[in-house]
Amino acid sequence: MSKFNEKNRRDFIKKVGSGMLLAASPVHSLLANGNTGSSSSHEIPWNTGKISANDNIQIACIGTGIMGMGDTRTALKLPGIKLMAVADVYDGHLVRAKELFGNDIQTTRDYSEIINRKDIDAIILATPDHLHSQIGIEALKAGKAVYCEKPMVHKIEQGYDMIKAQSESKKVFQVGSQRVSSIVYSKVKELYKAGAIGELNFVEVYYDRHSAQGAWQYSLPPDASAETVDWNRFLSNKAPKMAYDPLRFFRWRNYQDYGTGVAGDLFVHLFSGMHYILDSKGPTRIMTSGGLRYWKDGRDVPDVMVGIYDYPKTASHPAFNLTLRVNFADGSGGGSGFRFVGTDGQITLSGNTVTVKKKKMAKAPGYTIDTFPKALQDKFLAEYRTKYPAIPEMSEPDFEEYKAPEGYDDRLDHFANFFDAMRNNKPVLEDAVFGLRAAGPALLSNKSYFESTVVNWNPEEMKIVKTV
User: Fold this and answer.
1) DSSP 234-275
2) Where are the beta strands (DSSP E) in 145-248?
3) Contact 316/279 with Cβ under 8 angstroms?
4) Which of 323, 332, 287, 325 is nearest to 305 (CA)?
5) Rounded-to-integer distance, Cα 150 and Cα 128, Å
């Protein structure tokens, strides 16, 4: 478990414009969102006491690649969680799972063996994107809770089936975009709702990388072959039939048949976090551009993508514009950040640090009268000073900064919320409906790019709007 205790793990260190550090404030005052009773509460359910036998949760992981292994390690840090089995179609991943988690776990190429086990309560679904809906729906129908990696689905239409399966099964289903459980994003939400930046008008987000691994050129194991990989099971009936190709298997994110490109892998995180902060359901218009600029390794998805999105006025936010960017050959070294811009300031989110800069629009517009005749200048100034008298005003700090504690892990909180929902029959924030509202505009970013078109979207009904 985390190295900090239940109180200080969710404290922030606050810095104001004078440069003075303020004492860390407790979570109840820093993270209060003024929305009592809502499922968006961020009082994370960390149980420091013993978990009763009735509250133990037995899990399995389907898809033990990079994300699956990482998710499983994180889940097992929480009390009362036991790993029973893993499924993967590459034998090496199964061997590695036993090395990491013990020889007593079941390993199998056939995920249905896991879904059919009565003693497994929940699965972590971390397969390539094209298998999410197939396995997720089967697991829900079998009575399992599902933690599904993002994006929730590979195709828009699969999202409706996932929503239906969750609703009918009444089982907990949570998408794995962990930022919606982050205390950092909760802090941004609190600041936004408190009016820290005035009226929002623009959001800018980027997620750039500058490495081969960051661009999905994952290492190929020396034993990779048609014998060690169950290629047909990987393809299932969701991808075109073709001969075994190790690049397509181990670097599946690079191909539209199995992955969703930078939009489905990274844009979807940004949509999830922003929708949580603003209580937004999504954009109405989607436009993207980009290209394959550097990583010309056979992939059929771009390595640079820029998106522009129109968000309508709703009860929770005014109309605003959003830009998203991913660059996989960013010579500055990469990085990521959020910028929420309003009439009175901006909130910047970078890593686990939140910064607020305030600059209110002056009430007096100023003047440009030097070219007026002297008499008209005097007349103008007299009227101007009457209309805009100099009145001293109390000033607030023009700079504030909040830092989460060192070592904070939002994925741990996300799993804590998932298991708490299972134990206490509670709703999760990032359910299948939330998941489609984040995945929808991400997948439509690809549609806009590949079809060179503007896509109209109804975020309430989660449907493409056809134009005449």
Assistant:
1) HHTTTS------HHHHHTGGG-TTT--HHIIIIIHHHHHHHH
2) 145-148, 173-175, 200-208
3) yes
4) 325
5) 10
Task: Print pLDDT tens along the chain (468 aa).
Answer: 333 344 444 566 666 654 444 433 333 233 333 333 333 334 455 544 567 777 899 999 999 999 999 999 999 999 999 999 999 999 999 999 999 999 999 999 999 999 999 999 999 999 999 999 999 999 999 999 999 999 999 999 999 999 999 999 999 999 999 999 999 999 999 999 999 999 999 999 999 999 999 999 999 999 999 999 999 999 999 999 999 999 999 999 999 999 999 999 999 999 999 999 999 999 999 999 999 999 999 999 999 999 999 999 999 999 999 999 999 999 999 999 999 999 999 999 999 999 999 988 888 999 999 999 999 999 999 999 999 998 876 666 688 999 999 999 999 999 999 999 999 999 999 999 999 999 999 999 999 999 999 999 999 999 999 876
Report the C-alpha gap between 417 and 81 in whole angstroms.
13
Q: Two tokens at 455?
A: 């896509």
Helix ranges (DSSP H) in 305-350: none
C-alpha angle with apex 146: 144 to 152, nearest 5 degrees? 140
Bond into 128 cis (ω within 30): no
Residue 63, C-beta contacts closer than 8 angstroms, at least 6 positions apart: 87, 88, 124, 125, 126, 127, 128, 131, 149
Partner residues linked to 324 by β-bridges: 205, 307
What's the predicted TM-score (pTM) here?
0.89
> Pick from 272, 216, 204, 268: which is nearest to 414 by CA?
272
Token pair of 388, please?
């805009």
Sheet hosting strand 399-403, strand order edge to edge? 21-25, 12-16, 399-403, 353-358, 345-350, 335-342, 200-208, 320-327, 304-311, 285-291, 455-458, 463-465
Query: Can you spell out the DSSP letters for 416-447?
Result: HHHHHHHHHT---SS-HHHHHHHHHHHHHHHH
Q: Which of 150, 215, 176, 180 shows the shortest CA–CA distance to 74?
A: 176
